Amino acid sequence: MSTITYREAVRQGIRDALVRDERVFVMGEDIGHYGGCYAVTLGMLEEFGAQRIRDTPLSESAFVGAGIGAALGGMRPIVEIMTVNFSLLALDQIMNNAATLLYMSGGQFNVPLVIRMATGAGRQVAAQHSHSLEGWYAHIPGLRILAPATVEDARGMLWPALNDPDPVLIFEHAMLYNVEGELSDDPVPVDISTAAIRRAGSDVTIIAYGGTVRTALAAAEQLASEGISAEVIDLRCLRPLDTPTIFASVARTHRALVVDEGWRSGGLSAEVSARITEEAFYDLDAPVARVCGAEVPMPYAKHLEDEAIPQVQDVIAAVRQMVA
Amino acid sequence: MTDAVSSPGSVVAATDVDAHMIHLLREMMRIRRFEERCVELYSRTAIRGFLHLAIGEEACAVGVMEALTPDDAVVATYREHGHALARGLSMRATMAELEGKVEGCSRGRGGSMHLFDASTRFYGGNAIVAGGLPLAVGLALADHLQGRRRVTACFFGDGAVAEGEFHESMNLASLWHLPVLFCCENNLYAMGTALKFTESETDLSLKASSYRIPSWEVDGMDVLAVEGAARQAAEAVRGGGGPHFLEMRTYRFRAHSMYDPDRYRDKGEVEGWKEHDPIPALAAQLSERGAIADGDLERMESEIDDEVQDAVTFADAGTFEPIEDLERFVTSEHSSGATP
After folding, report:
1. Residues A159-183, buried b or exposed e (16+ Cβ, 10 A)?
2. Are the beta carbons of A107 and B328 separated by less than 8 Å?
3. Does the complex come out with an ipTM higher than 0.90?
4. Does A2-183 match A196-323 in CATH topology?
5. Where are the domains of chain A?
6. Mutate to test the interface with A, among B135, B139, B332 (most CBs of A within 10 A)
7. Under CATH, which architecture does the A2-183 domain have?
8. For residue B178, pLDDT beyond 60
């Protein structure tokens, strides 16, 4: 076992893929000479060369579309989009091509493409670099949406994503890159379809993903000292949702709290909440509750930004209310 | 693609050149007749949704396809019946697709705007204006990375030139020296708005040149001119010359779609362009050369009528995909449905 950062884990995953499969290449803005805006791809240009580590112009639509075309042409592209807000410039390609080609073509054309991007707030980069839009993408049939929350998933999700015959979007929370975790030196295969129970508990199920898993775990730790036993589910895969794991947990705890940095209205938390209400309603002893991002464009000032995203104390307060 | 020499038909050509010209004529006539039947089928509601006809523009599709090999790729627009047929998609499967039948080339999932065919490397049928350009750049990137000497031909209209994706794709293809043949069918109107109302610079090949992409302008109503330019451009692309740009000046004789009342064009303008109809123009050339005699055209028309009728009969007799298969092919996981 070694202690490594989430950034290093993502880097190892990419490096392993480049070594294992010559069809894999990486392209995106500032990934080569600059080394990646989060330094994930630092040193890869020198190691793998400019054919496989491709700096792109600031043309999100063209290079995401080129990733789709290259995938159709037999390659296994990893496309990096600098941050989730920029992905909106490529939304046409993601939605109208990547997600639809297999269906529109009657099953003839798979798009084995992986798109990685940073998501989330916490760095005071304000309203055009900080949102959590993975819930929007999870709305789209034809895509698989992943949110690695641990170093193991940060390293391990990429390979199965590249082997998925369909497009996979991986959302890496920007506040996780410097977080350290324990990781076995030999990569352990991970799946990209199930949720994981990160902490077992019996009084309430806290459902989180990506950046909010740490928040949920910290809250559960404090709640334990108050005698409240919280189970923490890391969704891992936002589309398709692993509802059996959620329902089984709710059947044990009878309470569910969804923690989502994204906006509440029409968001991923709404979907998870609705699924529980539809299919596990009679297991519930209390209404499903949510702790979400405030419905504002992300503010710059630190105190406002903190207020806009789910904090440990918000989760604790919500749980206390549910079990009271 | 139909081979000139082996294509079925009653017309006996004197020379290889004549035979080739007759082949081009036949291909354009097939597309024309196919689309005329589409109008009839639309009227009797066998075809629904959007139906965009390329009547008048046949020389572009036919001319460019002559320059391609079976290994090359084609990315087309939503006005792509001609591209599909000229590329060699089965007329039966194309018509069945328009009728929404499971025997269609996209199993009835795509319709007129989304014809796909893996066997001829026909990547659609893209109904987002300029949305196919990045895709074509990527197909060419895959060829480049795998050392294959193939061409990706990407069709789009003059309207696409106003989209950001056009400029991003031109830049990327040129920057990375990728084997794309950009085929701009300039029919002077982006749906119902004339080029002069949408472009600050109406010389479209100038835009390509500004990205250091060699560009040609060609009479899109002259199939031989299109073929000549396309062959020259495709060979340059195949030979490692990077992307090339072909602007074909053409015109659609019909409205934009079946919903379009065509209020924005002067009737005289339309009639004027009809005098440049590529089909009678080529037929006249063949006649002057003595390559076709009295009755030959009629015989070709009759053979094509039979082929189109056969496609309609096939489509009419086709079946609708069972509704149980609605979610099939959303992802590959869902691909293993009951039907083979």
Report:
1. bbbbebebbbbbbbbbbbbebebeb
2. yes
3. yes
4. yes
5. 2-183, 196-323
6. B135
7. 3-Layer(aba) Sandwich (3.40)
8. yes
